[in-house]
Amino acid sequence: MLVQDPLLCDLPIQVTLEEINSQIALEFGQAMTVNVCKADKDIMPIVVVQNATVLDLKRAIQRYIQLKHQREGGIEHISWKYVWRTYHLSFGGEKLDHDEKSLREYGIKNRDEVCFVKRLRNK
User: In the predicted model, what is the mean pLDDT of residues 2-19?
Assistant: First the structure.
């Protein structure tokens, strides 16, 4: 049934309820897609609600990567504490360093690109 639906035909075969709900919210304008660029230039389309915070985006990235690894049989465990300590998200050269701030406060809109940037160590 999902394959025949024009709104949901892009979803993978082992789709979760959360993915269906976020796709529907996207179609009704209640959510937006943020393209997250990794260091290897791979782009992940992450769906978050319109009033999402930086923490919501980080959690959505974690869910996206976890589902991707489950489907592909990749790495079983990722230390997200290490990832967020080593990298930060950046938009337009500005660090997204306040988890409680909304993405709108940083000027992030639908289909904008956010990148992972390695943190510099303080000596």
Answer: 65
Q: Is residue 53 in a domain?
A: yes
Phi and psi of 36, rounded to 5°? -100, 120
Residue type for position 113: E
| Residue 7 domain-assigned (yes or no) | no
Which residue would you say has higher pLDDT here, 17 or 67?
Answer: 67
More confident residue, 12 or 95: 95
Number of domains in the chain: 1
Domain containing 94 equals 34-118
**Residue indicated by tokens 């996207």:** 26
Which residue spans within 7-63 are E strands per DSSP? 31-37, 43-49
Helix/strand/coil for 9: coil
Residue 8 lies in a domain: no
Whole-angstrom Cα distance, residue 72 to residue 97? 31
Is the sign of the CA dihedral 118, 84, 66, 9 positive or negative? Answer: negative
Inside any domain, residue 76: yes
